[in-house]
Design brief:
The protein is an alpha+beta fold and 191 residues long. It has helices at residues 23-30, 41-72, 95-104, 148-155, 163-167, and strands at residues 2-5, 18-20, 36-38, 76-80, 88-93, 114-115, 120-122, 124-133, 136-145. Helices cover 33% and strands 24% of the residues.
């Protein structure tokens, strides 16, 4: 199905372009959300008549998204979660959790604006990309830790999942000879 895009859509095209998309994508996503019109003569004339207002609205949305991006730039958000000794979370951090953390700080971001392909399942510092507008995206830092104290230590660059942090052992000082005698008979036969 050929459609006329009413806004820029990533990996598809710019506003005003006529593109060919699958019928289901057009019927279930583009047309109901008002992101496109069917490409026929009547809709082409309608688009040309409304082009200036659509461009103005798009520019306004982009400037609002740019302001939010400037406020978010360089921010780090702390998520306190239960985790095991190895740093594996007992649950996970999903897009919904990120939205809650952002709204607690006063940012109104939709769940579909968070690019998180898989949930976060380990403590540490994670980069999460937010698509605030088709032309504006920003990466925020998510500090997932077991406590606020651990989050501060992680922010300073300290690793909390290494043997040193967990057991108080220097990993570099450990050698295989510390655990077994290379001279000993390995197969267990007494000769």
């Amino acid at each position: 199905m050929d459609v006329i895009l009413l806004e820029r859509i990533a990996k598809l095209g710019q506003m005003g372009e006529t593109v060919k998309v699958r019928d289901g994508f057009a019927r279930n996503y583009l047309l109901p959300l008002g992101k496109a019109l069917r490409a026929n003569e009547a809709n082409k004339k309608r688009f040309e008549a409304e082009r200036s207002t659509l461009e103005a609205r798009n520019l306004e949305r982009k400037s609002e998204a740019q302001k939010v991006a400037e406020q978010l730039d360089g921010k780090s958000f702390v998520m306190v979660r239960s985790a095991g000794e190895t740093g594996q979370l007992y649950g996970s951090v999903a897009a919904r959790d990120i939205i809650e953390a952002l709204s607690a700080e006063g940012f109104n971001i939709g769940r579909n604006q968070v690019e998180l392909n898989t949930p976060i399942k380990a403590i540490g510092l994670h980069k999460v990309v937010l698509h605030l507008h088709a032309e504006v995206e920003i990466a925020i830092e998510l500090n997932v830790a077991r406590s606020a104290d651990e989050a501060e230590r992680q922010a300073k660059g300290e690793s909390l999942t290494s043997a040193d942090a967990i057991y108080g052992v220097d990993e570099d000082a450990l050698k295989p000879e510390d655990f077994f005698d290379p001279e000993a008979d390995q197969d267990g036969d007494e000769e």
